């Protein structure tokens, strides 16, 4: 605002300067006027970032991970954002509600514990499918259902019956957790129009083989 106000007078005195170009003086702590070149370089690539950011602890690598992270914590740049994600969440979980229901376990939970999950993995959806907010998403809880579905430990059969993969037997605690909460459940989120997305998940992501009886 302040800059705009001061700029107003520029070029309005008939002195020929109609470009509204202003010169700004910035003081950057740690840099003197003669350091302009190094400031430019450091802004482009912050010091230490190239040495420590993203250290890979590969087998045989002589670099061990540092106990103190010296890289850049916040990166500048424009990360691609999922344009439709906020709309999907709003549709599945209107801001007016105090609780939402997990599609898989059926628990009523506070909104912060629920995610607007894609029934068919978003990166595998066509743009048309990504726009199909009425069918492509479901609410999944952060108590486990979201990740269990994403990893294919559970799936949804035609008609809505929750399928549990027997790969889960390799982790007894997980088996107890999942069978206790999901065995024999039918999700009300299944519908004929969502079936193509559940079917894709069953075919591509669900870790088939045997199912837990
Ligand atoms: Zn759940």
Describe the structure concisely.
The protein has 213 residues and is of the alpha+beta class. The protein has helices at 2-7, 36-44, 49-52, 85-92, 127-130, 133-136, 145-150, 172-182, 195-204; strands at 100-101, 108-109, 114-118, 137-141, 154-156, 162-164. It has a domain at 85-204.
List the helices and strands and how they pair.
Elements: H1 2-7, H2 36-44, H3 49-52, H4 85-92, E1 100-101, E2 108-109, E3 114-118, H5 127-130, H6 133-136, E4 137-141, H7 145-150, E5 154-156, E6 162-164, H8 172-182, H9 195-204
Antiparallel strand pairs: 1-2, 3-4, 5-6
The structure holds zinc ion.
Residues 102, 104-105, 107, 141, 143, 145 line the site of zinc ion (ZN).
Describe the structure.
This protein has a domain at 85-204. Residues 49-58 have low confidence and may be disordered. The radius of gyration is 27 Å and the shape is elongated. Strand 1 (100-101) and strand 2 (108-109) form a beta hairpin. The longest helix is centred in the last third of the chain and has 11 residues, at 172-182. The protein has 213 residues and is an alpha+beta fold. Helix content is 29%, strand content 9%. Strands 1-2 form a two-stranded antiparallel sheet. The protein has a two-stranded antiparallel ribbon with strand order 3-4. Strands 5-6 form a two-stranded antiparallel ribbon.
